[in-house]
Amino acid sequence: MLKGKSINIKKICCIGAGYVGGPTMAVMAHKCSNLEFTVLDINEDKINKWNNNDLDQLPIFEPGLKEIIKSVRGKNLFFSTEINKVISESDMIFISVNTPTKIKGFGAGYAIDLKWVETSARRVAKYASNHTIVVEKSTLPVKTAEVIKEILKCESDKIITSKKSFSVLSNPEFLSEGTAINDLIDPDRVLIGGEDELSINCLKNIYKIWVDESKILTTNLWSSELSKLTANAFLAQRISSINSISAICEATGAQIKQVSEAIGYDSRIGDKFLAAGPGFGGSCFKKDILNLVYLANFYGLNEVADYWEQVIKLNNWQIKRISKFVVEKLFGTVSLKKIVILGFAFKANTNDTRESPAISIVKDLLENGAQVVIHDPKVNYLQIKKDLNTDNEHKIYTPDFGSWQFSRDIYKSLKNADAAIIITEWPEYRNLNWEKISQLMRNPAWLFDTRAITDPEEIQKTNLNYWSIGNG
Length: 472
Ligand code: NAD
Ligand code: UGA
Prior knowledge:
The chain contains 17 helices and 14 strands. The chain is of the alpha/beta class.
């Protein structure tokens, strides 16, 4: 319909001011000073935080984010709740809302809940004016673009004289939390799926400002949507694979780091993403694989579904085996024992706790009566409280259900502790003075290192009992 014409893009908005929407638009604004970007959200509190003068109050912690926000906010980057107005003024609209697993209804436990995507599409359909390029930034089930197109079409068909028209692109995001800014500035690739060449080129021209053209791939819509799910499934599969081997190492005397290094030298395997740990967390791996499983079952590909589901099963097993192991080593009971959790975020350099293995491990310990002290450099008390789903810190210790407290002081929290469990690989935990700590802790006390970031030789100099993942 707009074939042959060029599309003039001046104003861009993004629906969803979360871990993806905020950093992505900030980097785009930083790189494209002649374009105006507005990040929208229904959550007023979140938008206020994005607009807060104190950059330590931004809703997410991401290295390098504060500096970028400082350089562009109020110039060509804005955060707003005026969704309808901003949509009506935008030439290109990214949809970057949450896409969690459905918790009820058909497909519960596997399918993606598209409620937030659909609401966004309806709003775009209603308030957009002229020609608008709608870009799927959220990770979506294959064929979602069909749904979005259908919603947009209904609205533009309503008014015959309307100048409204839409084209839909898929532009999945591959950033990792903790390295999001670098990933956005220097991505391995940018993927654009679409049908309409003019719109594809529009988006491509924006990325071309800072990304080498050879790294910008264009595909059809469905390949783009499926590539995003596949990338996450492959990454998660690698972690389940190495975690499965960590258990074999423990049983046999092999050492996981040596095995990772040995296989990583094979250029076909590569050395990245081979660190054994407490199981993968984060908001996406689990939900995206479950979505792939749902999709495979939907198309009658049951063996394919079973294959991918095993990646999740192994991950659940890995998380569980850690809490079981801790209880077993503490003479079969943690009731009234003080256990310090070092790290609550699902990985280092983020304040995100979604699907963090720490949640499940702490819940297990509480159920077994432990007195848990949780330390994390960036996650706050309120988030932990929400994740543990407890009304209050249980200050009255009972053998039936444990208690938890939050601490920002590592050494203080370890005083008289029976055990410490490293769950997140924060740099702060790499060079602790374990000699000093062992004096503070009870005797005998345990250090469980689920990230293998401590030096076994150093710990052996102390009187701590020691377990490090994958070290037989
Ligand atoms: P998030 O939960 O941090 O942010 C989503 C935001 O969308 C929330 O602030 C929510 O209030 C807002 N929102 C929901 N419905 C809205 C509506 N109708 N109008 C305006 N705002 C609305 O989620 P996220 O981590 O940024 O992830 C967003 C998408 O990106 C997901 O599909 C995810 O799978 C994908 N993704 C995430 C990452 C990551 O590292 N977090 C990386 C790549 C892709
Ligand atoms: C992951 C992908 O890496 C991104 O490419 C993708 O865009 C994103 O999901 C998404 O779609 O949400 P993220 O979850 O932020 O990014 O972080 P990762 O670095 O992938 O780590 C995921 C989990 O795997 C963490 O719990 C991490 O500790 C664990 N992990 C990672 C390991 O246990 N070992 C490793 O070697 C690497």
